[in-house]
Amino acid sequence: MFEMATVLAGGRSLKEAPLFSMGFTAHGPLRWTSLALGVYRLTAGHGIPVTINGEPMAGASAPVTLAGAAAVGTAEILAGISVNQLLEPGRPCLFNLGFAHVMDMRQGFAVTGGPENVLLAVAGAQLARHYGLPSVSWMCTDSLNYDAQNALEKMMAAVTHAQAGVSTIWGVGQVESEKTISPVQAVIDDEIIAAVRRYLRGFSTDDESLAVEEIRRVGICGSFMDTDHTFAHFREEVFLPEQLVRVQRLSAGERSDLVSRAEDRVDGILGAAWEPIL
User: Fold this and answer.
1) Cα–Cα distance, 169 to 99 (Å, whole number)
2) What are 71-97's pLDDT values in tens digits?
3) Which of 2, 81, 234, 256 to pair with 54, CA 20 to 30 A apart?
4) pLDDT for 254
């Protein structure tokens, strides 16, 4: 990875052009393995940002209470940060409690897309700010398909993580509890992220946006469809999806469901000609 990054950086050092980051997870409770410590040691000295992952599982490797799980995960993360700072003082570190899980007590399954995951990720963002560090979490789903559960869990994670101010949100394309990376899922996630960004942007209430004079000018029973005000503002005000269906009639060969449209988008991207980057 060092050698490839140096090629991509055009011969510059990784400190000048940090083209990748890395991370590792504590396998607790309260334990950093020799493998993890070896990775930290071998990657130290290059200025490579490192994500320190506390990954407690409430009810298994941490107390079943979310506060107890957060306490265990935070202790693991702070220990990992301390090790990295001893190996490379000033190394950029990211605080990642967003990988915390809960154990499904019926199945013995590590949940990645539940509401508890979201709560722990939000707590992680708050703790990271307390320590003056950037935070990390993921938008993941336990679903095996591109289905309603998938959309529910992905959207809930995206909205809550963004509202909580998580610094780095990853998981685009992840499905099946992170066991699968899917380009179709990536297209769907891209649509989710675009909608969340629009939601977070909100709307302004200045004179131009309130448009009182425009309302007076159009008057009772008038139309705002063809006004200059509408033309000037519709692109910034109205979310225009790329994949969601908003038409009653489809052209010949056009497919109506989200998954099919995402598959068509993937085919279009992969089928296009691209200039090599090396």
Assistant:
1) 11
2) 999 999 999 999 999 999 999 999 999
3) 2
4) 73
CA distance linking residue 89 with residue 44, whole number of Å: 9
pLDDT tens digits, one per residue of 13-59: 777 777 888 999 999 899 999 999 999 999 999 889 999 999 999 99
Q: Which among 145, 223, 129 is positioned nearest to 180, based on CA atoms?
A: 145
Distance from C-alpha of 118 to C-alpha of 64, rounded to nearest angstrom: 15
CB 101 within 8 A of CB 112: yes
Rounded to whole angstroms, how far apart are CA atoms 240 and 258?
A: 15
| Bridge partners for 93 per DSSP | 50
Ramachandran sector of residue 24 (left: φ over 0; alpha: ψ -120 to 50; beta: rest) = beta
Q: Is the peptide bond before 134 cis (omega within 30 degrees of 0)?
A: no
